[in-house]
Amino acid sequence: MTIGCPKEQKIDEFRVGLTPENTASLVEEGHVVFVEKDAGVGSGFSDADYEKAGANIVLDAKELYSSARLIVKVKEPQKAEYDLLDEAHTLFCYLHLAPVPELVSVLLEKRVCAIAYETVAIGEQLPLLKPMSEIAGKMAPLVGAFHLSRFEGGEGLLISGADGVSSANVLVIGAGNVGYNAAKIAFGMGANVTVINRSSPKLEKLLETLPDVKTALYSEQKLKEELLDADIVISTVLIHGGATTPKLITREMLKSMKNGTVLVDVTIDQGGISEASRPTTHRDATFMQEGVLHYCVANMPGAYPKTATVALCNATFSYVKKLANEGTVDAIKADASLALGVNVYKGEVTNEAVAEVLGLAFKELKL
To answer: pLDDT tens for residues 154-198?
Structure first.
């Protein structure tokens, strides 16, 4: 297999799809690996590191895409990469297609086999989303606390409080992997933490290790009540299968919240939880709507690429090896979890949730 690892083109994205260690393993098994110049620099890996591992360093993305069949990267292709794709490519990365119909059209037109990290599933588990969910969850209280500063647009409240001064109230919406890690870090920072979730089992599990965190079952009315007192709101709601996040926080709810409340919308990759949410970047991370400071960075873990790249590759690399060693079709046939990752194949949308959201025809994957 010829495998290509391009330099990420999304703004402020410094993660990389393969480490030098991964590269060496693939080369040892007889594969040819192409790495774009400086692809790993942001994660602490030099071109020399990849060359030592046996990779071929190419000067630009055009050369890489024309040389490789399996493209392993982190984030979805950007517009500059659209024309580089063709039907010989298997694309393996985070795609989050529901909010980006333009990319879906390109993948259909080019007849690419597009496998999304976020929909590879083993039962209810999302193994390739889990490491980045952990990092995003742990980041969320940190960025929320930072933006509570008056100079960043927040209400000027210290998350931990001080002697005689109450701590900030942190509301975490969702009790999955992101929500658990957000609650853990927020509580450790001294905040008053409440976690709200649709069902009780995850709340009960959370309380086993975080017994002092408050919990509540979700209802629209309960969410409205909790938003009134929140200083930081962290949205971690994820709909399995690639569908868009429901807009649980309406503009009317935003208007009822305290001025300078910070909303960290971790779910922005799938559209976001607020009616006002729109993707932002690390360089221009926030905007104010209805008095609420929205933090909607679509690649949060990209802020810590040395940690995030290794954590991500630890999860993805076994699948990369399957695709390389067995070939795309045989690997998908042999692994049901990998098959669930196939969102687009030979000009057809093979992910039902994406098709439904975008009003496109859905076709069951047949190889």
So the answer is: 999 999 999 999 999 999 999 999 999 999 999 999 999 999 999
Domain housing 35: 2-120+307-358
Residue environment code for 97-115, b if the CB has 16+ CB neighbours within 10 A, otherwise e: bbbbeebbebbbebbbbbb
Instruction: Note if 86 is an active site residue.
Output: no
Q: Which residues pair with 192 in a beta bridge?
A: 169
Q: Is residue 191 located within the same domain as residue 295?
A: yes
Q: Which member of 31, 89, 96, 294 is catalytic? A: 96
CA-to-CA distance for 150 and 135, rounded, in angstroms? Answer: 26
Residue 153 belongs to a domain with what CATH number? 3.40.50.720
89 is catalytic: no
**Judgement on whether residues 272 and 140 belong to the same structural domain of the protein:** yes
Q: pTM (2 decimals)?
A: 0.90
- Residues 210 and 159 placed together within one structural domain of the fold: yes
Contact 159, 232 (CB under 8 A): yes
Q: Are 231 and 168 in contact (CB under 8 A)?
A: yes
Dihedral angle over CA of 359, 360, 364, 367, nearest 10:
-160
Task: Select which of 49, 265, 269, 335 is catalytic.
Answer: 269
Over the stretch 60-85, which tens digit does the pLDDT of each residue have? Answer: 999 999 999 999 999 999 999 999 99
Query: Where is the domain boundary, 303, 320, 349?
Result: 303
Query: Of 264, 280, 303, which residue sits at a domain end?
Result: 303
The count of structural domains within the chain is 2
